[in-house]
Amino acid sequence: MTTQYEGRGPSRQTLTRRQLISRSFAATAGMIVGAGFVAAPDAAWAYEATALKPETMATLIRMARDIYPHDRIADEFYVIAVKGYDTPEAAPGIEAGIAALNAAAEGAGHANYLAIGWEDDRVALLRAMENSAFFQQIRGGLVTGLYNQKAVWPLFGYEGESFSQGGYLHRGFDDINWL
Q1: Residue 7 confidence (pLDDT) above 80
Q2: What is the pLDDT of residue 146?
Q3: What is the structure's pLDDT at 6?
Q4: Has UniProt tagged this entry with the keyword Membrane (predicted)?
Q5: Which residues contact 67 (CB under 8 A, 6 or more apart)?
Q6: Does residue 107 contact residue 124 with C-beta atoms inside 8 Å?
Q7: I need a surface site. Which of 38, 97, 134, 179 has the fewest CB within 10 A?
Q8: CB 129 within 8 A of CB 96
Q9: Spatial distance between the Cα atoms of 26 and 45, rounded to a whole number of angstroms
Q10: How are strands ordered across the β-sheet holding 46-48?
Q11: Which helix (H) or strand (E) holds 12?
């Protein structure tokens, strides 16, 4: 559906419904943050936040990508890795941790963590807080939350556990041909 908006003067702007909706939400760090949700601009994924603010969830996703950066892994896998923090029990601590991260970003001259364009600048903020309980909670949760997803294993060349297939000994463990 295309809608035409007539303003004063001879110019006319034609927008599709999708363009109108996408322009009405704030695009943040490659994500669209709307009322209660975070989504990809290409609509490949969306997540409806329940206990966390959508801006907090978007920051958490960006933080996860900055802690464990993999260009070959799509944001949707990072969303899966951090969605366990979107609970009423975890929300107060996560909101406080993200508020501290945003305060550090403001102290460095940025509006918030998501407004920092350079990955190196975001990583510097994360390094400054890496000994905090909040950072360690997120980092520790990402180890299993991200890397235990069977859908990402092929991206790393990991075939999964081998016990059910007889172990590694006769499944490529002994195929070292470069020695």
Answers
A1: no
A2: 96
A3: 42
A4: yes
A5: 126, 138, 139, 142
A6: no
A7: 179
A8: no
A9: 16
A10: 26-28, 31-34, 37-39, 46-48
A11: strand 12-16
Among candidate residues 162, 155, 158, 55, the one with its CA nearest the CA of residue 113: 55
Spatial neighbors of 50 by CB under 8 A, at least 6 apart, are 86, 87
Pairing of the two strands 31-34 and 37-39 = antiparallel
Residue ranges of the domains in the chain?
Answer: 47-173
**Vertex 53: Cα angle to 115 and 80 (nearest 5):** 85
Contact 75, 57 (CB under 8 A): no
Collect all residues with Cβ–Cβ distance below 8 Å to 82 and sequence separation of at least 6.
Answer: 57, 60, 61, 64, 138, 141, 142, 145
**Pairwise CA distance, residues 32 & 46, whole Å:** 9
For tokens 């941790």, name the residue.
97
Q: Which residues make Cβ contacts (< 8 Å) with residue 145, sequence separation at least 6?
A: 80, 81, 82, 84
Amino acid at 112: N
The residue type found at 55 is E
Structure tokens at 91: 């929300």
Token digits for 117? 């364009």
Q: Which residues contact 70 (CB under 8 A, 6 or more apart)?
A: 155
Contact 14, 2 (CB under 8 A): yes
pTM: 0.73
Q: What does the alpha-carbon distance between residue 114 and residue 99 come to, in Å, rounded to a whole number?
A: 12
